[in-house]
User: Which sequence fits this backbone?
């Protein structure tokens, strides 16, 4: 526990150490074993709705608010114009590997288990917490974005002419909410975490994820113990109300500023291990693959990168006016956004946007820009953010086969008529 694993560089270093110590063969065997374990334990028949039952997403998805992508739904950015700081829960994007499970909170239990706890309990004799137990513990509230690691993936093709695999999101696979719940650290301490603990792996109660015929078990992804003990929440409220079913009811993990996959929904158990843990979600997904990366990929992705979005429809048609008030939001997983610049001439000239409203550490920054529009025609609107680490959105994001971490300046097409 000496390394500060909340620091990305240290974490990556620790991870590459793990990888060096685990031959591909062993790792493959480990993966198969863990996928098998997911199968054997099932999803809890009483908890998960049958796969054929209903739509993968429970809440209404009106087309003026959402773009449908299979089991997922993307928020339309134009919906955020004129809204307050937070993304309303009804509008928040949904990323479901399978389908939203129906969970009975009276029988729901969070099971904490593994070799990193006193007495090394197995899943059968795990330390259990009921919903009421969590509600009775001291609560904290945190404003944070959750963003899919593939947010902006569609722009690899549109803007860079590169084919990548995965959901072709525009920029709407992100939202900011006020999450209330119990610090994961408190639950782990109550469960008897020891100095031996290395990795902490929450797992969802949604059904097994099957990727092209291969059953990978239930969605789960390890967190280094230092991050788990730092600012991670077991959240039961979103924007002041109980979590909606699609966003993890009754309890989800919220890992501020990290890749959305870390924020496991419908959490049912948490393994606390004294050895490094692997799941497909930190080995075959959520790493960078392709030119410039080793065959097993980069280190597992942790913090999200920079992004900016205009609160306008993609391909918006705007009636001509001499001045348009453009609005948008920018955010970064590496710290607060310090500056946003806008270009309306394809990137030749840039001018500062005016920041508006609060700047919580893990949230986004709202801004506006008065565009003196030369006349009817086609334009590309560009917004470029710089965060407190000095990082600025680049013109191009380096290619990676799964299309993660698109951070280049989006060229937002509009037509003025
Ligand atoms: N159990 C479970 N947790 C999950 C997922 C899932 O499919 N199952 N998807 C993950 C991914 S990839 C993302 S981006 C976020 C999305 O959270 P949201 O649907 O509340 O927006 O949840 C994460 N947690
Ligand atoms: Mo995601």
Assistant:
């Amino acid at each position: 526990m000496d390394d500060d694993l909340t620091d990305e560089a240290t974490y990556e270093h620790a991870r590459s150490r793990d990888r060096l110590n685990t031959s591909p063969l062993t790792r493959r065997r480990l993966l198969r074993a863990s996928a098998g374990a997911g199968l054997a334990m099932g999803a809890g028949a009483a908890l998960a709705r049958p796969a054929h039952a209903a739509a993968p997403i429970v809440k209404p998805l009106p087309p003026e608010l959402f773009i449908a992508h299979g089991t997922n739904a993307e928020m339309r950015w134009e919906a955020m114009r004129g809204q307050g700081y937070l993304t309303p829960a009804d509008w928040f994007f949904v990323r479901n590997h399978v389908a939203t499970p129906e969970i009975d909170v009276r029988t729901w239990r969070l099971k904490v288990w593994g070799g990193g706890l006193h007495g090394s309990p197995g899943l059968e004799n795990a330390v259990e917490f009921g919903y009421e137990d969590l509600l009775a513990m001291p609560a904290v509230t945190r404003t944070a974005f959750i963003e899919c690691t593939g947010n902006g993936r569609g722009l690899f093709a549109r803007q860079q002419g590169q084919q990548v695999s995965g959901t072709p999101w525009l920029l709407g696979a992100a939202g900011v909410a006020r999450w209330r719940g119990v610090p994961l650290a408190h639950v782990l301490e109550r469960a008897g975490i020891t100095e031996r603990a290395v990795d902490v792996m929450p797992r969802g109660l949604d059904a097994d994820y099957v990727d092209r015929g291969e059953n990978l078990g239930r969605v789960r992804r390890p967190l280094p113990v230092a991050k788990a003990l730092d600012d991670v929440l077991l959240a039961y409220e979103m924007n002041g109300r109980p979590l909606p079913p699609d966003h993890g009811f009754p309890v989800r993990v919220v890992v501020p500023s990290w890749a959305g996959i870390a924020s496991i929904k419908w959490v049912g158990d948490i393994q606390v291990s004294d050895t490094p843990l692997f799941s497909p979600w930190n080995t075959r997904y959520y790493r960078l693959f392709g030119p410039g990366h080793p065959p097993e990929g980069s280190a597992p992705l942790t913090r999200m990168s920079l992004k900016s979005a205009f609160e306008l429809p993609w391909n918006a048609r705007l009636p001509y006016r001499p001045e348009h008030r453009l609005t948008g939001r920018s955010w970064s997983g590496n710290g607060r956004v310090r500056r946003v610049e806008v270009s309306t001439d394809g990137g030749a000239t840039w001018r500062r946007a005016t920041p508006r409203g609060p700047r919580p550490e893990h949230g986004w920054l709202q801004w506006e820009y008065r565009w003196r529009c030369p006349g009817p025609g086609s334009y590309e609107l560009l917004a470029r953010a710089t965060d407190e680490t000095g990082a600025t959105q680049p013109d191009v994001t380096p290619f990676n086969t799964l299309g993660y971490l698109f951070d280049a300046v989006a060229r937002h097409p509009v037509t003025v008529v």
